[in-house]
Every structure is written in C-alpha cells, then in structure tokens.
Amino acid sequence: MCGIVGYVGTQRASDFLLAGLRRLEYRGYDSAGIATLDESQQIEICKSPGRIDALATKLSDCLPQATTGIGHTRWATHGAANLTNAHPHFSGETVDCPEVTIVHNGVIENYDALKQLLIQKGHEFITDTDSESIVHLLNDHLTLVRRDSNSELPTDEELAEVVKQTVAKLQGTYGLGIVFRERPDLIIAARLGSPLVVGVSDQAHYLASDAAPLAGYTDQIVYLADHQIALIKQDSLQITHRDSGQVHHQIETLQIESGDVDLGEYPNYMLKEIFEQPQSLRNTMRGRLSLDDATSIFGGLNLSARELRNVDRILLTACGTSWHAALVGEYLIEQMAQIPVEVEYASELRYRNPPMSKNTLVFGISQSGETADTLAALREMKRKGYPTLGICNVVGSTIAQESDGGIYLHAGPEIGVASTKAYTSQILTLTMLGLYFGRLHNLSFEQGHQIIESIQRLPEIVEQALESNSQIKQIAEKYHQVNNFLYLGRNFNFPTALEGALKLKEISYIHAEGYPAAELKHGPIALVDEHTPSVCIMPQGSVYDKVMSNLEEIKARGGPVIAIASESDTRVAQIADDVIRIPHVEEFLQPIVSIIPLQLLSYHIAQLRGCDVDKPRNLAKSVTVE
Ligand code: AGP
Fold first, then answer.
1. pLDDT tens digits for range 16-26
2. CA distance 485 to 482
3. Ligand 1 centroid distance, CA of 319 (Å)
4. Are strands 561-566 and 578-582 parallel, antiparallel or unpaired?
5. How far apart are CA 52 and CA 87, in angstroms?
6. 101 Cα to the center of ligand 1, angstroms
7. Is 418 in the pocket of ligand 1 (CB under 6 A)?
8. What's the pTM value of the predicted model, to 2 decimals?
C-alpha cells in the first residue's frame, strides 16, 4: 500500500508534506513525491525514487514556498519502482503545465480499458501505473464541465462534480488527494477501500492515509468513509456522499501523541516497539479486567451476554502475524471456554465456503485494520449473516468501521513493518476473550480471579524477558551468517515457532520454518545438519519433556540448538548450544513471553546482516491489495 498526505494552510506546505511522508514511510518506500501550488497557479512537482530522504535531499535547495500541496510515498503495484512511476501524477495540455495532479493509494482494476479510451482521446501517458488513468480522466471531465461553465474559475461544485463523475468510472480501490491548478485554495479527497483521514486546526487542514502524520499538528480528526468526497480548504471541510449527498461529519479527538510516532532515543521503530511491550500490554488490559466479577470487560462487542453465551463456535480469520495470534487464540479459548474455535487464513476463507454452525461468531484480527484479504473475508461472513467483530490496533480503520463491533488493542501506533507489540497485544486480547467466554460457561469465580492476577503480572515479566537483550545479541553474532533455521514448539508454543520463523524471514531474509516439534520426525529432521540451527521453545510445562526429546534428536544429528527455556531449568544447558532464559509464567501466557527473545534474535541477526529492520525489502506494513 502507499502513503498519502495533503496540506492547505497558512504555512509552507512542504514542511508538513515531508514530515508526514516520513511517518507514513512504513506503508511503502519505493519512491516519493510532492506537488505544491500557490496563487501563481503553477503546480510544482518534485519526485524521487527510493526513500523520503532522497526526496528531501532533492528539495533541499529549492523547497517550494506554496501553502497548498499533496504528497505520496509508494509501494509499487503496477509499474516499476522508478522516478517515472513515482506519484504525484498529472495531466494537462503540456507536461510543463499540469491542469490537475493526484496522489493515489489503491488498485484500479479497469485502468487499462480507461487508458485505451483516454489515449484515443489524445491523452499522453508517460507512466506504467494504474493511477495515471485517474488523473487523465479527471482532466477529461474537467474540460467537459468547464465547457458549459459561466464562471471564470472552476467552482467547488463543479470540481466536486468532476471528481464524482471520475470515480464513478473506476473499478477497484482508491484513496485520492487531488489538486487543480486554478484552485490553489483547495484539495479534494475521495475514498473507496483505501483509508483517508482529515486533520482539522485553526491554521490549516490536513489529509493523510492514517492518523500518524497528524500527531503534534492537531488532535481533531475526521475519518472519511467509502464513497465520500471531501473539499478541504485552509479553514473549512465539506464532505459529500455519492448517494446521500451532504455529510454532517463528526470530528473525533485523536489519541496519538507525537512521542508515539517519533523514534526518541531508539535507532529504529522495531527496537522501540519491542521495548514498548510492557507498556503496550498495560494499555491493552487497562480497564478490561474486573477482579470484582473475575472476568474481562469489553465495551465494543455490541452483543449481550446472553447472545455471547449462545455462541457455539468461533471463527478467527487473519493474515501473517495476526494469523499466528489467532492460532494462539484457538488454544486459549478452547481451553478456557471449551468453545470450538476455527482459525482460517483470510485469503483462503474469502474463497472457501466452509460449513458453519448457526451461532458462529467471526473475529477478524488485523493490526492495521486495512488488510485487503481480512476485510474481504469479513465482508463474505457478513454477507452470510454472521456477526463479525474486529480486533484492530488502528482506530477508525476500515475493518473497525465495517465490523459489527470489536476490540481495539490500544498498543499505540506500530510503525515497524515487522509486527511485534501488536502481536503480543493481540494474544493478550484473545486471552481476555477466553476468560470472558470461560466465565460465561464453566470457569469459576476463583479460576477467573487467578487468571486475572496472572495477566496483571505480565508487563513486569516481559520487562524481565527483555533483560536478555545483550545476551541475545551475542548469540545472534554466532548464527547471523547461516542460510536456514528451524523453529520448534508444542501446544501453546507451536504458533510461537511459526511467528519466530516469520520474524527472522521478513527482516533478515534468512529462510526459516516453524513446526510443531513432534513433526520433526515426519520430514524436517532431514534438514538438520551442523549448518542449520534449530530454535527449541521449551519453557517448563506439560510438554517440556517431549520437546527435550526432540532437542536430543537434533543434537544426535549434529544440529546446533538454541533453547528458549525457563530460568529454573537445570537440564537444558547440558545439551543445548545456547540457552535464552525466560521468567516463569503460566503455560497459557507463555506465547506472550516466549516470543520476546525471538523478536530480539531476529532483530539482531538482521542488524548484523545490514538489513533495514523497519523497511524490509518487498514488504509493506499493511497489504491493502489482494
Ligand atoms: C508481520 O510482521 C507482517 N508485517 C505481516 O505478516 C502482517 O502481520 C500481516 O500482513 C497482517 O497485517 P494486519 O495485522 O495489519 O492485518
């Protein structure tokens, strides 16, 4: 996906545009660009391949002074990641005099048909992107609308009509920021399927793909909904809906501080967010655990206790790391509440047609709340009449808006592409859900009370687990040049093995596979040799001895072993090559604690390999395309 910003105000637009793009760079970093406009009615466009820094360097000696502008940071869907395909795109009589310029996030599925029609009309295309079709279509409609106009300059209504007619011809998704040469006082935004927010302040109005760029500029925010068109000026905001016309928009107060999105003393967001986990866990559980009732409290499920008690099956759907959290959720909810739980990859669920029981409750788990497959799977479940709930981190995200209710993680903005604090907050949320459903059924008051006390101890336990950071860095030095890793765990820690492997893959580019430890003998043990380390996740618990046997099988074949083990374990150090110890915690809470050393291990290995841990190659923070 891509990141969009816009500014109309009293100050130099490029300052906010560049700062805002830096905060959105996690959404895509193949290329970047800005377009600015002042009363001279000359649109200035500056673009650069690569990161925002390259764009800022290009602008450094000629920063535009205009007070209106739009900006874009790209994750390529159509067309190579090069200067030509960088946004903003423009259309006009000549390349030197753009009439209209746009920034786009999304995918236009009928772009080629539109392109052919526009070429026949004489439009010249210079990029390989789908987005360019939009800007030529806008220019085409502008010409038509202006042809019958009596006003010297295009009016708000005319330009809103131009945009409405244009987007009516688009198939696919779009988050658009649009600037017309003759109207330097105005940005028009349009949304379908790709998020857009508007920031409101006395001196300016802002446009962004999500709230992160607004922190420190304003805490007044308006979330645009699908099929809405916004006319954004320095001191006004007008929103219309394709079908219902004028919208009386609601201004909400943003809960993000600039400190939440700035690096502070950390070298990168991933390390910052790993070390934020004690606090993010506190934020996730705050106000949601009742010792008086020995259960969890959720304000946004929008279902009564009676309706929830009648739930006879739970379906969890997600992608990537969120899918690993869902797997932990299956173990948790089934153990605590004895309700059958099904976990489905969202990309599979949306095209499958699984048999479902009448009282199935569907949860979509998504940090960003924008993942296309997860959104589509929830829409399919909704079409079948099932109640759908979202477990999201980004407030006002599409999944949060479209679900029948849900639970926000309150983990704070997660900027690093590799999900860390959101993962542990997702698991904590699912733990509290397991407690809630358990107390609706068979968990006693005393049992509920004990679970709550264990949960409340988690932040300081995670703080203790983080103290192994320097030891883990030394271990990473031993293994950072290998080409393959195996991750093994059982029961609650089988998903931990999958997540540990994904962390390593996505930021260090080392091939890694996670398995249930017992599966080793069914094939993967053929991979074991002295060049292939295995991470065995084996804290004290019901399956410890079984994993110890697997560890011995690996050692018998010369494979190096890194053990994630309990502080009290006196056996493992005699066999494993390296041991990373974690504090004792009840077995059902181990996934939150045992992932901490694996996050740090992948981080340090990636750093030693010179990889960009915040912006790994080929990835984006949220996959808003299929
Ligand atoms: C996790 O480290 C990855 N960034 C990726 O697997 C991610 O979890 C997945 O794309 C789902 O994203 P979401 O939680 O925002 O839906």
1. 999 999 888 77
2. 8
3. 6
4. parallel
5. 12
6. 32
7. yes
8. 0.84
